[in-house]
Design goal:
The chain has 271 residues and is of the alpha/beta class. The chain is built from twelve helices and eight strands. An eight-stranded mixed beta sheet has the order 3-2-1-4-5-6-7-8, with helices on both faces. The chain starts with 7 loop residues before the first strand and ends with a helix.
Length: 271
């Protein structure tokens, strides 16, 4: 077992923190009794405690003292103050994992004692259903074992891979923000189905399953998306007619621009 019985802590139980806790508990990688969490909102903590049996506190220091691996699941704007508060309790035998968008490793390490082990991760909200896409960048003091542990933790809620840190803003714009780009697509496809006479419930199921199936084909066949598109578009058929409309509407450029804009915002948050 990569984690060797280590206890896992979360500072922050907002959408991402709670999603990770839920995903980890649902996959039974770590029992709830070995997970500790802190937050200023007791209602969030109580819900997680009642559902998963995790240990909770409104004091971040409790989490740091009681755990071996601490996930910093707080907003980028308050990360520095959190690090300042816990600095004295973070010893070199503990591993910190930051999921704060846009905050670079050196900025985190500079707020902590020399030698502190830090790994930066950009997951996404699909951790809730164990289908997250997570990119991992180990800090200068992190070991190979640390990287393996983080890959295992985030691999339990989806796919995880290691990327150079200078690409993390691109990851944030692509997979971190990406689900919010796809949800309106599913809604719009369903709207098209409703326009053509399908009931709303059926249209949403068909649209969502279509997106999920297409994604699974890309991942499992390892074929280029363009090749897969060509498999569906027969000469003069219905699909190529729809693809032509998408091209006329500039859909590909819009998605590219959305990823670029989100990536640029990630860079701004890190400054």
């Amino acid at each position: 077992m990569v984690l060797n019985g280590k206890k896992l802590g979360f500072i922050g139980t907002g959408k991402m923190g709670s999603s990770l806790i839920k995903g980890i508990c649902d996959t039974e990688m770590i029992p709830g009794s070995e997970i500790y969490a802190s937050d200023v909102f007791e209602s969030y903590l109580n819900e997680l405690h009642d559902e998963f049996g995790i240990n909770i506190s409104t004091d971040n220091m409790d989490v740091v003292r009681d755990t071996d691996i601490i996930v910093l699941a707080v907003k980028p704007q308050i990360l520095k103050s959190v690090l300042s508060h816990i600095r004295e309790e973070v010893t070199t035998d503990k591993l910190l994992i930051s999921i704060a968008a846009g905050v670079q490793l050196d900025a985190i390490e500079n707020e902590l004692k020399p030698g502190t082990r830090v790994v930066r991760v950009m997951p996404n909200i699909a951790a809730t259903v164990a289908e997250a896409a997570s990119a991992i960048s180990p800090g200068k003091n992190a070991t190979v074992e640390d990287a393996d542990a983080v890959l295992a933790i985030f691999g339990s809620v989806g796919s995880s891979l290691i990327v150079p840190e200078h690409l993390m803003d691109a990851v944030t714009g692509l997979s971190g923000s990406g689900p919010a780009f796809i949800f309106p697509v599913i809604e719009a496809m369903a709207d098209g189905g409703v326009f053509e006479g399908l009931d709303r419930s059926s249209a949403i199921v068909l649209a969502a399953q279509t997106v999920m199936g297409a994604a699974k084909m890309v991942l499992e066949t390892e074929m280029h998306p363009g090749q897969l598109k060509d498999m569906v578009t027969s000469p003069g058929g219905t699909t190529i007619r729809g693809v032509h409309v998408l091209e006329e509407s500039g859909v590909r450029a819009a998605f590219m621009n959305a990823v670029i804009a989100a990536s640029n915002r990630s860079k701004e948050l890190g400054n």
